[in-house]
Amino acid sequence: MIRDTTLGAKLWAAAVWALVAFFVINLLAMIGTVVTSSFATRWLGTWLPIGWTTRWYASAWSEFQLGDVLIVTFQVVGMVVLISGALGVTAAYALARRDFPGKRLLVLLFLLPLLIPPITFGIPLATVLYRTGLAGTFWGVVAANLVPTVPFVILVMIPFIEQIDPKLEAAARVFGANTFKLFIHVLLPLLLPGILAALLLVLVRTIAMFELTFLVAGPTSQTLVVALYYAVFAAGVRAVQSIDAMAVIYMVTTLVWLIIALRFVNPTQIVTRAKQQPAH
């Protein structure tokens, strides 16, 4: 590969790196400001706070009932992960192994929630859930989050399934394996990296999903990101440091799960590949 060393190419590379550096610096500055404020006794008009304390975390925990919010968050996330995994892996297997009329259209319909902004279909979805009485409940929040997560699992799992030679399944059938044994002893060990990748990314995605959860959550079914929004914009006077402490708890919660996910996920495996045709 020949590297372009012209002046225009060098200027373009410098501009790209400058833009990336500007973004990273601003991002780190915002995160640093929030973290610093969450430990500050008071911070007005100075480079650093005049004192440091951890009492804002205890204040945020009690004032915003973070214990209950975290329990609801993990319950919602756990249920979304389980259901989307079961539905997504099953649908991905059918799409990877079967050819039928309208398959491309069906795949497009499955992937539409990933291609359009959540707020676009979130409002009609919330209307349906309110009419059915699910909005404001735990299961309403789970149902809303399943709309983008099931297609996401399908998108991740199809290339993993396509890598498995169908002859392995046929051989297992020949030796008397039923569908359950075929899945447990043949498919599951081969698909486990893909399943872990899909479910861990669904977990992180659900924790961070604001739009759909905000539209359908009730007082007892709010996840952490929605509770953070209400803490900032709800009526009343609240200490900025307490809200910043809540934001830090949210960032740490998401970051921990993201780090766990990245230990299992190879980002190059998430790219959908066209199925290779066998050579004749």
Automatic annotation (TrEMBL):
CDD domains: TM_PBP2 (cd06261). Its main location: membrane. The chain crosses the membrane at residues 12-35, 69-93, 105-126, 138-161, 182-208, 214-235, 247-265. It is a multi-pass membrane protein. Residues 70-261 form the ABC transmembrane type-1 domain. InterPro entries: MetI-like (IPR000515), MetI-like_sf (IPR035906). Keywords: Cell inner membrane, Cell membrane, Membrane, Transmembrane, Transmembrane helix, Transport. This is ABC transporter permease subunit.
